[in-house]
Design a protein that fits this description.
By secondary structure, the chain is an alpha/beta fold. It has one domain: P-loop containing nucleotide triphosphate hydrolases (Rossmann fold, 3-Layer(aba) Sandwich), CATH 3.40.50.300. The chain contains eight helices and ten strands. The strands form two sheets. A six-stranded mixed β-sheet has the order 6-7-8-3-9-10, sandwiched between helices. Strand 1 (2-11) and strand 2 (14-24) form a beta hairpin.
Length: 231
C-alpha cells in the first residue's frame, strides 16, 4: 500500500534520513522502532507532507505523494495521529471529531456511529472541551478524529506515550480490531516492545536515519533488540 524508497531528508545542513526504504503492505500492521532521535517521527512527517524531502520515492497506492500537499493527503485515505495527540484543547470533543469530515470522499456530514462504538467515552463527553479530558481520553479522541476521515492507512506516532496501563491495553485492542477485523492498514511508531509484539505483523528498525532491519515480528530477536532498541 505504501512504499518508501531511497528517501532522503535534511534539517538545514543535517542529513536526517539516509536512502531509507520502507514497505507497508496492505492489510498489515507495520511498526517502526528505534531509539530516540533516529528519525521515526521525521519519516512519518515526510509521509504526511509536513516536512520536505530531498529525494526518493513516496508511493501510496501507485501515486507519488511528493507532489501532493499535506492537506491533500487525508482525502487520499491516509489518517494521521501525531505524537502528543495535538487535539484542539478549546474545542469540544464533538467539534474535534467534526473537523475530520471534510476529508471524507463520501461527503458524510455526521460523525460515523462506529466511532462511538470504538470509543464510548467520547459519546459521553461530546460537549466537554478536549483539553479537559485525561491523557488517555485525549488519545482516544485523536484516534477517533483520524478515523472520522475514513482512512485506508492509519499512521500512529507513539499512541501509548504517557498513557495509563489500562488505556494502553484498550488502545492495543482497538488497533488489533481495526487491522485484523476491519482490514485497516496500520503504520505505527512505538517504543513499548510488548505492545508492538501484540499488535504488529511486521517491524522496521531505524538507526541514525537508516532502516537497518526489517521482517516479520517473530524475527525481531534478542540480538536486534540489544543492538538497536536497548539504551
Amino acid at each position: 500500500m505504501l512504499r518508501v524508497e531511497k528517501l532522503n531528508q535534511f534539517y538545514g545542513q543535517s542529513h536526517t534520513l539516509w536512502d531509507l526504504d520502507l514497505d507497508v503492505p496492505e492489510g498489515q500492521c507495520t511498526v517502526l522502532m528505534g531509539r530516540n532521535g533516529v528519525g521515526k517521527t521525521t519519516l512519518l512527517k515526510c509521509i504526511m507532507g509536513l516536512l520536505p524531502v530531498k529525494g526518493g520515492t513516496l508511493d501510496y497506492q501507485g501515486k507519488d505523494l511528493k507532489g501532493i500537499s499535506a492537506e491533500g493527503r487525508a482525502p487520499m485515505g491516509i489518517g494521521y495521529v501525531p505524537q502528543g495527540r495535538q487535539i484542539f484543547p478549546l474545542l469540544s470533543v464533538e467539534e474535534n471529531l467534526l473537523i475530520g469530515l471534510p476529508a471524507r470522499r463520501d461527503r458524510l456530514n455526521r460523525i460515523p456511529d462506529f466511532i462511538f462504538e470504538m470509543f464510548p467515552v467520547l459519546q459521553e463527553m461530546l460537549g466537554r472541551r478536549g483539553g479537559d479530558l485525561s491523557g488517555g481520553q485525549q488519545q482516544q479522541l485523536a484516534i477517533g478524529r483520524a478515523l472520522v476521515t475514513d482512512p485506508k492507512l492509519l499512521i500512529l506516532d507513539e499512541p501509548t506515550e504517557g498513557i495509563q496501563p489500562n488505556i494502553v491495553a484498550d488502545i492495543g485492542s482497538i488497533v488489533r480490531k481495526l487491522n485484523r477485523e476491519l482490514g485497516l492498514t496500520v503504520l505505527l511508531v512505538e517504543q513499548k516492545l510488548p505492545f508492538a509484539r501484540k499488535v504488529a505483523d511486521r517491524f522496521c528498525l531505524l538507526d541514525r536515519g537508516r532502516a537497518v532491519a526489517t521482517g516479520m515480528m517473530p524475527e525481531l530477536n534478542d540480538d536486534l533488540i540489544h543492538q538497536y532498541l536497548t539504551v
